[in-house]
């Protein structure tokens, strides 16, 4: 059955391209946060271990929400490391940095995801896709708040 939700195919495809970038950023940030949760050491171990767990749990839920929005638009969501690697703007961390660098990298990652979210909102808003605008506005607020909270640890 053909999709008929009031958004033209061309517009859905453009929105899907931007959502795929957000999905890749979100997944990359999830993976980095989870790795840092496992590998954190030092005097702030307990608080950062717990904070990172809360953050990666939220990101895991966000990955599903973004992917399902892509599917709602009748498009296929990327789902492999190679696809995400091509789409994300978040730098991979292959090592185990100290806690300050971990926090700094996560601040940067959330700020990148906020920028990506704003691009999705622009494209979706221009197409009259209120559903995507609403969902991504929530994601934007989460990324901005998390970046602020993490940035506050470094002052």
UniProtKB/TrEMBL annotation:
It comes from the Bacteria. CDD domains: DPS (cd01043). InterPro entries: DPS_DNA-bd, DPS_DNA-bd_CS, Ferritin-like, Ferritin-like_SF, Ferritin_DPS_dom. Residues 17-154 form the Ferritin/DPS domain. GO terms for molecular function: ferric iron binding; oxidoreductase activity, acting on metal ions. Signal peptide: none annotated. PANTHER family: DNA PROTECTION DURING STARVATION PROTEIN, GENERAL STRESS PROTEIN 20U. Belongs to the Dps family. This is DNA starvation/stationary phase protection protein. It comes from Dyella solisilvae.
């Amino acid at each position: 059955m053909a999709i008929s939700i009031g958004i033209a195919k061309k517009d859905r495809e453009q929105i899907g391209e931007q959502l795929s970038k957000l999905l890749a950023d979100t997944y990359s940030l999830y993976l980095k946060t989870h790795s840092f949760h496992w590998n954190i050491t030092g005097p702030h171990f307990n608080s950062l271990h717990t904070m990172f767990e809360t953050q990666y749990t939220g990101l895991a839920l966000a990955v599903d929400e973004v992917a399902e929005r892509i599917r709602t638009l009748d498009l296929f969501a990327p789902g492999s490391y190679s696809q995400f690697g091509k789409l994300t703007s978040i730098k991979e961390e292959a090592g185990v940095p100290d806690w300050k660098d971990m926090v700094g990298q996560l601040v940067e990652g959330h700020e990148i995801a906020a920028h990506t979210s704003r691009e999705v909102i622009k494209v979706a808003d221009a197409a009259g896709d209120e559903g995507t605008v609403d969902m991504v506005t929530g994601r934007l607020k989460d990324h901005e708040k998390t970046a602020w909270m993490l940035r506050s640890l470094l002052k």
